[in-house]
From TrEMBL, chains A, B:
Any Pfam family hit: Aminotran_1_2
MF terms (GO), sorted A to Z: DNA binding; DNA-binding transcription factor activity; pyridoxal phosphate binding; transaminase activity
HTH gntR-type domain mapped to chain residues: 11-79
Cofactor(s) in the UniProt record: pyridoxal 5'-phosphate
Listed InterPro entries: Aminotransferase_I/II_large (IPR004839), HTH_trans_reg/aminotransferase (IPR051446), PyrdxlP-dep_Trfase (IPR015424), PyrdxlP-dep_Trfase_major (IPR015421), PyrdxlP-dep_Trfase_small (IPR015422), Tscrpt_reg_HTH_GntR (IPR000524), WH-like_DNA-bd_sf (IPR036388), WH_DNA-bd_sf (IPR036390)
Record family assignment: In the C-terminal section; belongs to the class-I pyridoxal-phosphate-dependent aminotransferase family.
Organism: Paenibacillus lutimineralis
Bilayer-spanning residue ranges: none
Protein name: PLP-dependent aminotransferase family protein
Superkingdom, natural source: Bacteria
Organism placement in taxonomy: Bacteria, Bacillati, Bacillota, Bacilli, Bacillales
Sorted UniProt keywords: Aminotransferase, DNA-binding, Pyridoxal phosphate, Transcription, Transcription regulation, Transferase
């Protein structure tokens, strides 16, 4: 015994010795009431200092794995760990096997089926991948983030590390309320809940509004954000999709659907700015038209503000919640995940005060509160004035890539229709005879991948000739080379079809 | 105009000037296509440097609130913000009022009703409060936490700030798997999901296992953790409670309930170590007995390991999941929130691999992933060997307070029955004629508050003569004084009842 000890990582040696002996006890190599080697012996056997062994033995006693008899030494404590595998009444623990697949409900099943990451495309090393619309981490100003953390810890470190509030970190809420006010939002009668990113905010809102006893009904742009489709389905909503036009949702179609006697929509989900996946910005005129329609039919609107900040040109367009003025029918969900740091899981829900009051209790029941460290880093980062500086830098860089990607598509994919006014991706529509899953297969073989567009559509079989091109994390030469390759594969497919 | 400008916080002046002008535009004080004052003029009016104004004007243009005409100056951009309140077709936005209370479902309603924070006791300033079982933040070793953050940021800051994985931060998972193995757990066939604390882990497990089409049935200790009761109810479970004995759950009663033909339990929820609220540790013998019973009736066990680490005496007792050996019927949910920092919202679910695979997809659908900053700080803190050092310090301090509290109860509350073998609280049972809500009212008037025990019981009207005394955040003299006061009030109540 004690021959197989080795340091496994760079934790203090005393801790590694303690864990090593724990294992011997757990495995039964050291029996209850057995005497441990003296500290001198063990230090010799393990080739570590005696003080190290003394510290390790103290730790073992603290954790209740051993007991000391003064003047005699340390002994292994008696502790039942597992059931005997072979005891008379034949209930050895290995006998206990539950068929979990059979125990899990349809929600758990659908969560996997609808999980794009699990059904997703795996990129080989060296592949040019247009699948991500996450920010380019090379742009991150780590120094400013570190400073924000250290500044905040110095001010109230102990508070940050203890429990916070379900509603969110007060200074951040105050900051974001003013931030939204500066976008033209009338905040009277409204309140804010901080969530762990957009996704949690959206899921909490759905769980509060989905009807019981019947399936919910939601109306949204088609195509739209696949996570929104997933969560709507998981919460049991039937989804009606409205086609997109160059300047946003087709308002006539929207009105037609709303007029139908048979339709009673519980809510609408809209992404007016840099819509995912089309990248289209809804015109100011359409925003007013949409608000008037939703008002007439009294349908709550969940507005996704996910990358409003990534505006490269044109005048600022106020979010729908601003257009609604004092009206309380819009639930705005914001996040800086795309423009700043996705790793900081912070989003916010801005809505009617009565609604927020309930959402706060749901939030508490689910996660108690969002990471205070994340919230306080974000707050101090904003307060230090880093946001404007960073966004300016990010916009310049992304705008350049956006224009390069656009130019390459126009040059190498003349047969496709492009959309995307900003953000971190472009959306491509090919002639109907091109199946982008076939195209993906062909491109993957050439070391290029992208996201087929059909998964953003409501109905199976829609958008099979579309794809989303995320450029934020692709280098300039890979953008050029990748789109060239896609172009070649498109022409091969078209040839093959002649 | 421009008379009311003042610096509101310590953000860079240029940003505050920019926001100030934004407001004037949003409010309509500056109209579309109106020319802004020259940078020289405005710097005079606002008494800030001209360069500040130049930077502010650049920012306004970047954000699309203004446009520049070379050689002429900056002009306000045209942007629709809100609907006219008084336009012909009489759909002024204030007309849009949704009755949210009517739109919200029973889940949203119950979330508020069952929200202890909303129904909770408000402490006046200067009150001696025994209501908290959160750790004492004075013990936090901020220096080690800061170092952990800086160390990790230096190694992979950019990775930490971009998207992570739903399953969790890999180095932390590996660390915790070994940590659980050292508690005697057989990890073969098992896997781990990192969650935003115990609460999210518990809620995700329930949402995966609650039956559809009928109400779920859960069995647990009575009393038990009120958050668990809340989430079970919110997920539609009927709860059967089994009384506690000095050494844990009443196994005979448990067997009686399991035997009943009419009972088909979907799951059991148990807290074998430092049970909340009684603080009782389930004996090793009972752990084996419970595992055998659950095995016989094939009932999945959710084991709450919430403050296993706060052991003050006696031998280490392996968690139930260790007792179950290779059996896959136990779902262990762990957290360091009580022993380390609640602000770091990190917990873990250790269970059968097939189950974790589904829970991972549910986690992704709800919050994408747990804060990587929180996870990496915790990981590096553990790796740096701070945990053992801190727990040693915390145990010593809490053990002292625990013994002081116990001694005071024995001295000043002779008529009560005490329980609590460790952790951050004691549980008191008074003669049945004492109503602890009445007692709380009397004590509140004397500046002392605690948590009445009835809210930890399954049925209305149970445990009305019990209370929980959390001592972790109360000073020594307040512990003495507070318990003295409670004692006096008890005797007054008893007198009054004669």
């Amino acid at each position: 015994m004690f021959q197989d000890f080795k340091l496994v990582d760079d934790r203090p040696v005393a801790i590694q010795v303690k864990e090593y002996v724990k294992r011997l006890i757990i495995k039964g190599a050291l029996q209850a009431d057995q005497k441990l080697p003296s500290t001198r012996e063990l230090s010799g056997l393990l080739k570590v200092s005696r003080n190290t062994v003394i510290a390790a033995y103290e730790g073992l006693e603290d954790d209740g794995y051993t007991y000391a008899i003064p003047g005699k030494g340390s002994y292994v404590a008696t502790m039942v760990t597992r059931l005997a595998e072979d005891n008379g009444d034949s209930v050895g623990s290995s006998a206990w096997q539950i068929d979990w697949k059979a125990r899990m409900n349809e929600y758990a099943g659908s969560a996997v089926e609808l999980d794009m990451m699990k059904q997703g495309i795996r990129a080989q090393k060296g592949t040019i991948s247009f699948t991500s619309i996450a920010p380019d981490e090379q742009l991150f100003d780590l120094g400013d983030v570190k400073r924000a953390f250290m500044d905040r810890m110095a001010i109230e470190g102990q508070v940050l590390l203890n429990y916070g509030y379900a509603k969110g970190y007060k200074p951040l809420i105050d900051y974001l309320m003013r931030y939204m006010e500066n976008k033209g939002v009338d905040i009277s009668g409204k309140d804010m809940l901080i969530t762990s990113g957009f996704t949690e905010g959206f899921d909490i809102v759905l769980s509060a509004l989905r009807p019981y006893g019947r399936r919910g009904a939601a109306i949204c742009e088609n195509p739209t954000h696949h996570t929104a489709i997933k969560n709507l389905k998981l919460q049991g909503f039937e989804i009606t999709g409205i086609p997109m036009e160059r300047d946003g949702i087709d308002v006539e179609q929207l009105e037609k659907e709303l007029q139908k006697q048979t339709n009673h929509f519980d809510l609408a989900y809209l992404t007016p700015s840099y819509h995912n996946p089309t990248g289209i910005v809804m015109s100011a005129a359409k925003r007013s038209a949409v608000v008037k329609l939703m008002m007439r039919y009294q349908i709550p609107v969940i507005e996704d503000g996910f990358n409003e900040e990534l505006r490269y040109s044109g005048a600022h367009i106020a979010p729908i919640i601003a257009t609604a003025g004092q009206g309380n029918g819009v639930i705005y969900i914001g996040s800086f995940s795309k423009v700043l740091f996705p790793g900081l899981r912070v989003g916010w829900v801005l809505a009617d005060r009565a609604l927020i009051n309930n959402l706060e209790s749901i939030k508490r029941a689910r996660t108690i509160h969002t990471s205070t460290i994340d919230q306080s880093i974000l707050y101090q980062y904003l307060l230090n004035g880093n946001f404007d500086k960073y966004v300016k830098k990010a916009r310049t860089e992304y705008k350049r890539k956006y224009e390069l990607t656009k130019a390459c598509c126009e040059a190498y994919l003349p047969e496709t229709q492009l959309s995307g006014d900003g953000g971190l991706h472009l959306f491509l529509t090919f002639p109907s005879k091109i199946d982008t899953h076939e195209l993906l297969e062909a491109c993957t073989a050439q070391g290029v991948i992208f996201t087929p567009g059909d998964r953003f559509f409501i109905q199976e079989g829609e958008g099979t000739n579309t794809l989303r091109l995320g450029f934020s994390r692709v280098t300039d030469e890979n953008i050029v080379q990748g789109i060239q390759i896609i172009g070649e594969q498109v022409r091969d497919l078209l040839k093959g079809q002649r």
